[in-house]
Amino acid sequence: MNAIARAWKKAVRTALPGPWRPRRVVGQVLLALLMGGLAALLEAATGTGLAVPFGLGVAVLWVLRRGLPTTVLLAASAAAGWSAGPVLLLVCAGWAAGARIQRVWSLVTAFVAGWALFTVTGVLTDASTASPKLVLGLSLGGYLVLAVLPALYGRYRAQRRALLDALRERNDQLVRERAMLVHQARLRERHRIAQDMHDSLGHQLALISVHSGALEVDRALTDRQREAVGVLRQAAVAAMRELREVVGVLHDESTAAPPPVGTAAAGGARGGVDGIDGLLQSSRAAGAEVSLIREGERRPLPAAVDHAAYRIVQEALTNAHKHAPGAPIGVALRYEPDALVVEVTNTRAPELVGVRAGAGQAVSGGQGLTGLRERARLVGGMVHAGPTPEQGFRLAAVLPYEGAEGGQEGAAADAGADDWMLEGLPSADEVAGKRRSPAMGCAVGVAAVGLVLLGLVVWGIVALIDGNHDATVRRPVYDRIEVGTAEAAVLHELPSGNGFFTDDYRKSGPTPPEGAQCRWFLLAGSAGEAWDEDHVARFCFKDGVLVDKQDYVAKS
Description:
Layout: H1 2-15, H2 22-46, H3 51-64, H4 69-82, H5 87-100, H6 104-126, H7 132-216, H8 223-253, H9 261-266, H10 276-285, E1 290-295, H11 303-323, E2 329-335, E3 339-346, H12 368-378, E4 382-387, E5 393-400, H13 401-415, H14 428-434, H15 438-470, E6 472-474, H16 475-480, H17 487-493, H18 499-502, E7 517-524, E8 533-542, E9 545-555
Parallel strand pairs: 1-2, 6-7
Antiparallel strand pairs: 2-3, 3-5, 4-5, 7-8, 8-9
């Protein structure tokens, strides 16, 4: 029972897709009653006696046209071919099928099948009064006008609505992405500021701390001066600690947006390989023993590598001053064939006499080496840091030249960073090129239908002229034929005939001879007594001989 109930609910949802709000229910019921009433009136006017069944059927099919467009189209096609009552339903069914059947070939198949049903029922209804050829032409033209043209317009409306919805959704998506890009840009700038604060201010504060430590152990100072220097040192340490906290907050809020290479390169003007000498001089002025070794043939460096090398040396000197004050520091720049190697080493820190406990406690936020590794990664390099066997510390970075050039390309690309989130989405030009305009396809369909209708009209005019010629006997021919002439000779004189023009005259005129077979023709050259009267010529044959010939006036 549950399976039957589920199947029933699914069938109802398919046949009557929602949502069904009260206002819509009332509107659909009123329209269904209107469509059924019109169909019943048309059926009553034709006198077929099927007004009530046709009215109820049209009302039900009207309600089901959205959920079952193919079924309703086929049923309306068969009913409209049989009678004129469901013609308006056929128009609405064609509209619904064109708008709701998505696949083109399914739509074409449905309309071909509908036209076949429309034609078959028309032939079955009018076969006795019209030729199948005429019925076929009229059914094709009528079906194109009543069903295919509304379907083309309905499909155009549906595709246009879908296109507008897609464009509106794409515009909303672009607006959201623009907001995300602005947020990403803010995070990247915040990360860059944090990195520069960490590298530059941290280095200067470390130098202040080293200078203060050296003065604090100077024997020439008085106790009061030494105390003032100690306060200065503590202030530098406190400033370093606060700086670490601020940088940590900035890093935490922008971890999803690492600093782009182009941003780092932009700051290269403040420091590069040429600026390393200034860093060493500042360290020497603070009392540190620093040496510099350059190996290999010096070569111009891309801005990204130049700036990264400067920041790596700066951070390494800062760490050496903090963690090993007074220890000798060695800086080496090696120009290898494919990469620049930057190496900074320091030995174990000597014991400083006279420094109070906790005065030289190093402040570390854990961001320095992480930032260096990120800088090296962005230019295609790597950083290694660790203790040495002599209880010192060594920091080495490998910065490839080719990787740096690629990084520059990445920097150039980052200048248009607003485009990275749009990667994989087609541009507006691509969408316009790939998506065919709904008006174009529907216009082609309308043009094809128009050409077919024009061909049918031309064919109908030619057929009408030929049929009228075949159904007309001229007065001289009529006068020349005499009663008693053999049937074959008479038929040789007469045209082939066309029942479409003469079938209405079968029940008019004098009573034919009993047992005779008669043929009716329009009589040319004789005008009727009124605008609605025609002269008719009747020839009756019996036993292969013309036994009666009549000329009379009949209502047209």
